[in-house]
Amino acid sequence: MPEQEERKALKLVSRSARQWKAVHMKDEKPCPISFERDYSGVTTAADYADAWLRLGKAVAVMPDRESVCGTYFISDSGCNRIAVFKPVDEEWGQSGRPLSVEPFEGYAEAFLLGECAYKEAAAYLLDHNNNAGVPQTAIVKCIYPIPTSCGVSSGMGAFQVYQDNVGDADDYGPGIFSQENVQRIATFDLRVLNCDRHAGNLLVQETKDAKVRKLIPIDHGYILPDRVVTPPWPAWMQWPQVREPLCPSVKSYIQSVEFSHDNAMLEEELADKIHSGSLRTLRITTHLLKSGVDIGMSLYEIGLLVYSSGTGKSKSVLEKLADEAYAAGLVREQRIESQLDLAALEHSSSAKGKLQPTTEDFIVRYASKLIDRHLQVLQGFGSCISRARSHPNFLRRPSDKPPRKSLLSSSGSSPVSSGRLREYRALRLSSPSHGPGN
């Protein structure tokens, strides 16, 4: 067996993929792991690509469009595409990267060098039961031909089963995609804080219904940033499907998601490749998503707290709340009585050294309380919020009385206390001035 592995041009590295192959194909040594994902497609593609690579007849082609990371379509001798390979050493910022495209301005510090391939693998793991349709992805070690030279390269990278398609979402109007399909992808993007969701990385496939097309989400190297940031406006935020009430299956899926399970799975599969800051981000976004759905918000309404549609560097509500929680965590850990300059949070938390687990937990709990407080205010003032239009429950006050048409009575006076109104305005324009205690 070791001699056979030495001759391999492509070798599975992901423990969960190797375990699946050991159980279902009986040609790998067992690699015990406490969870299971379907890797039938990726193991078959890996074996097929390995055979062609060893014969020296595999073809590696770079896509026509520019990419932040090195990307290769691996094909057989007949140019039939097998998989997409993204090597670690050709990611943005690496010395071997042959590309010039830089990632999103102002976000580079939120992503660490050499982790994009592992984020691709994490995306498939976090897409439970293939809810959003993320293609099967695993980490492999591959010897592949370089199309721009006569040489070959060898390295670790993300290996994803190629998806046949008829274009991407840029080529179609949103009306041909089902509400459930769009909502599942939006749910995934919100949960992993995807910073790179444009129409070009939503592939389109035909279905049995000639009037409906299916979206396949790809390119997930820029999920789970090291700190909560404000991602660019995703393509689906402009589509009507996310303004509608949640499909029952989507709501049920969101309610079933548990960070503790995801954390254990990522720790077991990717070890130190997914850093503590990324896990903190996942905890915070998972809490926002579940809490927002619990009070009847649509995915569009939740997205308004997460994304920015402008070209400037204005922070989202979520980033402001996370910044405040992070600042409080640093103060707590360093025992500094003076107020921390929030501008210092423009730098990645990893640059300041790894935080203690108790501090990480404190930051998440603090951020969660700030999020809950903000959602309570939005729920209480739902009738004056222009975005609260797609779900009747979101417009109801805690008393379950129908919402007033206006916050002002006929006499022009406010039906709510001036103190509560000031609190609402403060929470809308900036993060709360007073957070929860320890």
Automatic annotation (TrEMBL):
Domain PI3K/PI4K catalytic: 58-337
Amino acid composition bias (Low complexity), ranges on this chain: 405-419
Region (Disordered): 392-438
Similarity comment: Belongs to the PI3/PI4-kinase family. Type II PI4K subfamily.
GO molecular function: ATP binding; kinase activity
Classification via Pfam families: PI3_PI4_kinase
Coiled coil: none
Listed InterPro entries: P4KG1-8 (IPR044571), PI3/4_kinase_cat_dom (IPR000403)
Annotated PROSITE patterns: PI3_4_KINASE_3 (PS50290)
Name this protein carries in UniProt: PI3K/PI4K catalytic domain-containing protein
Keywords, in A-Z order: ATP-binding, Kinase, Nucleotide-binding, Transferase
